[in-house]
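Run log, item B.
One chain of 172 residues. Sequence copied directly from the ordering sheet:
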Amino acid sequence: MANSFQRARTTVILMGIASLLTGVVILLNPAGVALFLTALFGGVLAIAGAVTLVGYARARDVSTQSDLFVGLVELVFGAILWFWPGMFVNWLVVIVGVFILFSGLGDFAEARSLAALGAPAAGMGTVLAVLTVIFGVLVVASPFALVDLMFSIAGFGLVFNGVTELVAAFRM
């Protein structure tokens, strides 16, 4: 029983340290971590594509054209992520920003329609729609600022988790 308890405590301590260290690394370079993870995913995807293509070539008599297509898509998309992770992260965030922008414009049109009907909350809807449009413009204008913010929040969360794990472990 005591041995199981000690192993559990050791596991909690190691998880706390890992979480704390990972959080600190992310906080020190949030954009760099985003680019590294994107490139890493791209490398794994490119390798998967190459393996799929080799499998297709080795068993061409039983392989389907979809194997060839999937392998090529994995390889090309993986290579793009590997060689140009910044471009991918940038475009992904810009797409999110454009979605937010158009959502805000739609919200603004809805709020104006409600105001024309005399709805009491139309003013608040207009304010929220304008804020959404502004946020969308900011995201599109500075995508890496959002990446930094998102990864910084994740880093703070990991640091907090690591500290709470360590506190819990030493109170066991």
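Observations after the first pass:
- Helices lie at 2-28, 30-58, 65-83, 85-116, 122-141, 143-171.
- Residues 2-171 form one domain.
Flagged for discussion on Thursday.
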